[in-house]
Every structure is written in C-alpha cells, then in structure tokens.
Amino acid sequence: MTAPLTLRTGPAGSRIAGVGSYLPRRVVTNEEMCTMIDSSDEWIQQRTGIVERRWAGDDEPLSYMVTEASRKAIAQAQVDTDDIDAVIVASVTHLKATPALAPIVAAELGLKDPAAYDISAACAGFCYALAQADALIRTGSAKNVLIVGAERLSDLTDKSDRSTAFLFADGAGAAVVVGSDTPGVGPVVWGSDGTQADVITQTEDFRDAVPAGRMPTVYMDGKPVFRWATTFIADAARDILTQTGIEPEQLDVFIPHQANNRITDSMLRHLKLPDHVVVARSIKYFGNTSASSIPIAMDELLTSGEAHSGQTALIIGFGAGLVYAGQVVVLP
Ligand code: UT7
C-alpha cells in the first residue's frame, strides 16, 4: 500500500506587508531623448505621458537595484531577514541564463537558505510573482516571500529606434508578502496569447548577436499591443474585480502597468471607475520599467501620501509573451 503523504497547510490568505523601490540616478529628459531619435517632447508627452525616465549607470547593476529596493520593502514589512524563506525575482533583463538573480541577491541580503528563483513574465512579472507568493504561503510552502520586479531595459533598447527608445527605462520594485488570516491578496486573473509572441520580441538571440559584437534589442509593434491592452486586458481588469467580489465603488487605487497613459485612460473609461479612485501615473517620471512598474508606482503613491495603507488597489500587468496577470490587493 502506498504510504500516505503528509501535506502542509498555511494561513487562509496572504498580504503585502512592505514595499520599496529603487530608481537609477540618471534622469534622461525628453529633450535628451530627442538627440537620439527623430521625435519631440510634445509628441512623447501626448502619445505616452512620459516627461523623463531613468537609465541605470555601470555602478547600478540589476542586483544592486534589487537589493536596494528589497531592503526598503523588508524594513517596511518589519520582517526579520532570517524569516524570509522564498525569493522570486521577475525580470527580462538579467542577462545570464544561469545562475538566476534571486539566489545571488538573497545572499547579498543575508537571507538564510531561502528558496530562490527567477521568473520571466515581462511586464506582468510582478503580478505573476505575487500570485506565486500568495499560493506558496497559503499552501504552507513558504511563510514570508520577497518578490521583486527589476529591469535594466536600457541594456536591451536600441537608442536610435524611435518606436521604443523613448519608452523603456530602468528601475526595481520589491514587496514582502506574509501570511494573513484576513486575505490581502485576491485571486489572480492571468493568461497568455503566444500567437502574438512576435509583437514584442528580441530582435535576435544572444548566440547570433554576441559573436558579431552586437546586443539583441527589444522590438515592439506598438499598435497591436495597444489594441490588446485597451480591449482584452481592460476586460481582464474588470474580471479581476468580479472574481474578487469588489464593486468599482469599493476600489481606492488603480495601478496598471505603466505602459502608456493613453492605455490607462482607456482602461479607466472601460472599467467606469469612480472619480475618487487614485490612479498611478508614475510613467511620467519613470517611463515603462516592465516588471518593476507596478511596485515602483505602488511605492510612489504610498510615499507621496496619495494612497494609504489599508486601501484596496487593483493591479494589472501585461506585456511580451503576450502575458498578463492582475489582482486586487490591500496596500501595506
Ligand atoms: O510594456 C509592454 C506593453 N507595451 C505597450 O503597452 C505599448 C503599447 N503601444 C503604445 O504605447 C504605442 O503604440 C506607442 C507609444 C509605442 C506608439 O504610439 P502610437 O500612437 O501607436 O504611434 P504610431 O506608431 O501609430 O505612430 C503615429 C505617428 C506616425 O506618424 P504618421 O504616419 O501618423 O505621420 C509615426 O511616424 O507618430 C509617428 N511616430 C513618432 N513621432 C515622433 C512614431 N514614433 C514617433 C516618435 N516621435 N518617437
């Protein structure tokens, strides 16, 4: 007879206990951008809402940005580093296939023997990581999980490509997720459409590019992505509210992936969110930072006082894959 396996169980729910972010020092204004591409400050602002973005310097590698953001999230969560037993880093710009970034930053943070791994889910990466952290905690596989979205998109951006150069930027955002008898992370709504894999993709793989002295860069066909985001993803955002049992009137904050203010505006119209809902617009100063954009925006809203601990926020990420994910969360 097969021996019965003992299973673990965890608390009923999880919640975000702390959030933190790191933005590179170098500010790249639209004016500077227009020395690299044929564009204008007016066009960039009108079409995207971006005024400036940050690009990381040589002294700000991905691991540094991750540890800086993580330290702030851990401090706010007031969780002992010895008690963090899993680390998930979401990134598409960690340029080594192995080892993953998560175990490296876990060691730099002085964590003791945590499970540590990376995930690649582009601009949905933070919400994917949050879904995993929530599941790990509720099934008893981890008690306290550090999740991070971190990108150095400037490494993989063709600075002369007028369809992407002004958009992509660098930064990191982290959160500590802990167990909670009162759920602070709602059910994830997520999915993918690989038939559209070629609308945001690397121009070539590293094996071809590097021997020829090149770096691959990110190619994006913006129009179909825009269409998908303002139709299918807007529906998915509504589905998140429905599945969480939250009416638009009960929502306090909306933090969509910071891809384009026009996408955010379109989602707002689609969701019919009431005027009192605070809407993240950090793309204005930080551009599109892919997996980092949601935690950076969350941290900014909390730090500026525009949003408050205990408020209910809808978050949704979407991007290359195509992939998407989102949840309703209670802010730390
Ligand atoms: O993070 C992952 C998810 N990503 C997204 O969600 C991005 C979704 N896509 C977008 O946000 C938009 O498609 C972009 C911001 C990337 C581009 O905006 P758009 O309104 O779709 O521009 P377009 O490519 O349709 O071009 C419109 C016009 C064209 O001129 P004509 O043909 O109308 O005369 C372009 O040549 O704007 C011109 N244009 C530019 N002009 C100044 C295109 N790029 C530029 C530029 N500066 N950089």
Cα separation of the termini: 48 Å
N-to-C series of helices and strands: EEHHEHEHEHEEEEHEHHEHEHHEE
Low-confidence stretches: none
Ions, cofactors, ligands: which are bound?
oxa(dethia)-CoA
Count of distinct structural domains: 2
Kindly report the CATH topology of the largest domain. Peroxisomal Thiolase, Chain A, domain 1
CATH superfamily of the largest domain: Thiolase/Chalcone synthase
Instruction: Tell me the total number of β-strands.
Output: 14
Mean pLDDT: 97
List the helices and strands and how they pair.
Elements: E1 13-22, E2 26-29, H1 30-33, H2 41-48, E3 52-55, H3 62-77, E4 86-90, H4 101-108, E5 115-119, H5 125-138, E6 144-152, E7 170-180, E8 189-192, E9 200-202, H6 206-209, E10 218-220, H7 222-230, H8 232-244, E11 253-256, H9 261-271, E12 278-279, H10 283-286, H11 293-304, E13 312-319, E14 323-330
Parallel strand pairs: 4-5, 4-6, 11-12, 11-13
Antiparallel strand pairs: 1-7, 2-3, 6-7, 8-14, 9-10, 13-14
Helix pairs in contact: 3-4, 7-8, 8-9
Bound molecules: oxa(dethia)-CoA.
The site of oxa(dethia)-CoA (UT7) has 21 residues, from helix 2 and helix 7.
